[in-house]
Amino acid sequence: MALLLPPSSTALESLAREVGVGTGTLQRWRALTAATRLDEVFTTAALAEPEVALDSSRSPRHDKKHIKELERRLLRKDRSLAGTAALLVLSKKSR
């Protein structure tokens, strides 16, 4: 995050390409405090691994809801991991 702030003030798009995350992710992380970012990382790390095997006794409708929920959780984890990766790269570059 230090690269987004003065005196460095690296362009958001350039930094996003460099660290391999979306500009939206960097914008959201830039708006958060360090404590909030750290809390997000710990919250995501604490999430249980989703069960990917579907129970044959469930209805197809229930399975679709279950799949959607798993996809939402996976997306949340992916976003958090991308943010964490960006923080790691930024912290290394600021040193």
Describe the structure.
- The chain is mostly helical and 95 residues long.
- The chain has one domain.
- Helix content is 68%, strand content 0%.
- It contains four helices and no strands.
- The longest helix is centred in the last third of the chain and has 35 residues, at 60-94.
- The chain starts with 11 loop residues before the first helix and ends with a helix.
Task: List key phrases describing it.
4 helices; single chain; mainly alpha; 0% strand; 68% helix; elongated; 95 residues
Topology:
Elements (H helix, E strand, L loop, with lengths): L11 H8 L3 H9 L2 H13 L13 H35 L1
Helix pairs in contact: 1-2, 3-4
Write a brief caption for the model.
The protein is 68% helix and 0% strand. By secondary structure, it is mostly helical.
Strand percentage lies at: under 5%
Q: How many individual helices?
A: 4
For the record, give the distance between the C-alpha atoms at the N and C termini, rounded to a whole number. Answer: 12 Å
Quick one: overall form? elongated
How helix-rich are the residues, as a percent range? Answer: 55-70%
